[in-house]
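ingest -> validate -> predict -> emit
validate: passed (alphabet ok, no gaps, 345 aa)
predict: started
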Amino acid sequence: MDYYAKLEESFQSELQSVSNTVELQTLLSKYIGKNGFITQKLKEMAAAPKEERAALGKAVNKLKCYIEEQGKEKKASLSKKDNRTYVDITLPGAYVKPGGRHPVKIVLNEIIDIFVSMGFAVEEGPEVETDFYNFEALNIPLNHPARDMQDTFYIKPLGAETPANSYRESNIVLRTHTSPVQIRIMEKKKPPLMFIAPGKVYRCDSDISHTPIFHQVEGLMVDEGITFANLKAVLEAFIHIVFGPDVPVRFRPSFFPFTEPSAEVDMGCFSCKGTGCRVCKNSGWIEILGAGMVDPRVFNKAGIDTNVYTGFAFGIGIERIASLKYGIDDIRLNYEGDLRFLRQF
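emit:
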């Protein structure tokens, strides 16, 4: 028994001097390996007197278990130490490539800065919207194509057993435009109002010129005596700042449920200077955004007195502006994460 006590003391002393896992494995092999002290004692036990075997076996197994447990703890301690990061301050520094802004973000920030410089405030709203704010309050009737599932992501209501597949089964949607923000702000604040609402919007589209998620900037101005002339002045100034002072601008009659009259705003093709090319589809003009005077029914939904106030609204697709400004011929490139594309900006 004295031999085993001395063996334990010897193991403890040697274990304290172990500094790495290689030394630890050598030490464990010395004591409990194939030819180790403990293994040899187990082999010699058969020659011991019968009445002493039980006590000797118990002592040997106890010491073996102790050594194994101490070995595990030491290994864990060494592994933790080995995983530490050490920095050699004499080595030259590693070059880390700087990050850059995304083209959509560059254009979005530029547009916000332009309108803020004109006096517009910046407002935000939820991306998960109700049917009322996304459609009904904007004078979009129940049978309007924008409510069709191929355009709109409808959200399954909490607790519903089956997914919603039509307007009648859910009134929760991922907003299809940032126009709902104008309703929310008009409900909270009284005119005069002058703000833009930038943010993400969602539609069930995916091709060379559409993605399921994209960005818009909604603009709204409401006050006494606001006319279409004010709308033209603001948007012409915006286009000239972004694309240059000599770019021609035209307003073409169109239709939007929430504005009357409505217009598509075009600018002269910067590629062919109006003579016709692939960029403008040989028309000499490029569609840039939609706008119009706010329909009185929209004001009524928001509690604005149409006998006193008028206003205009416009919507700008950020990816559209970025594509025109940087010559991006496939909108999906913005979201593929290709560093060869992103490093250009």
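The longest strand covers residues 213-223.
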